[in-house]
Design a protein that fits this description.
Elements lengths: L1 H7 L14 E6 L2 E7 L9 H8 L3 H4 L3 E4 L10
Antiparallel strand pairs: 1-2, 1-3
Length: about 80
């Protein structure tokens, strides 16, 4: 969780509205698989989406723990 909070510090606003800083770290068997933060991709995608859909693929996600500074607001689908 400490790494997710650190990652949130890299957040960038997506537009002129106020947004919370969000950090995500995906871990499996003690290894960090992905980290992401708000505004990382510059296209308005949520940090959780970037970590799970852009940086990882579905088979790898099984059995992972996702640490995030903000509750997830989406669900994965095929």
């Amino acid at each position: 969780m400490r790494l997710a909070i650190e990652e949130a510090g890299y957040s960038r606003p997506e537009d002129d509205r106020p947004h919370p800083n969000v950090g995500v770290v995906v871990v499996k068997n003690g290894s960090i698989l992905a980290k992401a933060h708000r505004g990382e991709m510059g296209n308005g995608e949520h940090a959780k989406f970037v970590a799970l859909k852009r940086k990882l693929n579905h088979p790898v996600i099984a059995g992972t723990t996702v640490y995030t500074t903000c509750p997830p607001v989406f669900r994965l689908s095929n």
